[in-house]
Fold Glutathione S-transferase.
Amino acid sequence: MSSNITLYSWPTPNGVKASITLEELGLSYKAEGLDVSSSSNPQKEEWFLKINPNGRIPALLDGAQRVFESGAIMTYLVDKYDTDRKISYAPGTPEHVEQTSWLMFQMAGLGPIQGQANHFRLFANMRSDYAIKRFVDETRRLYSVLESRLNESPYLAGEKYTIADIASFSWVRGSPISLEIDLSEFPALKRWIDGIDNRAAVQKGLDIPHSTWTPEQKAEIFRNCRAKIDAMTTSDQH
């Protein structure tokens, strides 16, 4: 499908939500990589702040229209381009309400909580056993919510794979190597993850912008990050 879209992103959990959606819809688009791990902070440059005033990826331009925040991007893309309802339900239907509810579950709950778990377990400049336990435990609780839903429904919004699934998949998928969460503890969640992971469009979207790191290299990076945190003295006060 023809479009005039430029995606500004990096292969993070939020970033791939946008690229997977674009790939699932079969849209042509240009991908511009912004390495958010770089000390130069390209996402804070003035030109990009005109696209996303919050200075975060992903963001996109569709012609002159800017869209920022990953959930807004996903919703915009299906509202405008998913006329066949390939990965969305029609507004006004009960399934669309369910789709929106699970999308907001990821945006307001799973993403922020797992993001904090990742920060304190991998990237903080001090160790806090309290914060690690607090956010990893809450991440696991949210996984149990997904597990419960997926025990009664093949997909989060109902019988069909939608943007609600893409949103949570993008976060849950990496937790075994980042937080050492064993997804076999959540059998329905693991089946759901494996099924989505096998989709060709998903595999394409996970590698946009292209990363030169292999899965083994990523796992080693996370091991080193955890080891660095573990070597610190906890900052918690007793």
About this structure: Residues 20 and 228 are 32 Å apart (CA to CA). The radius of gyration is 18 Å. The mean pLDDT is 95. The longest helix spans residues 94-123.
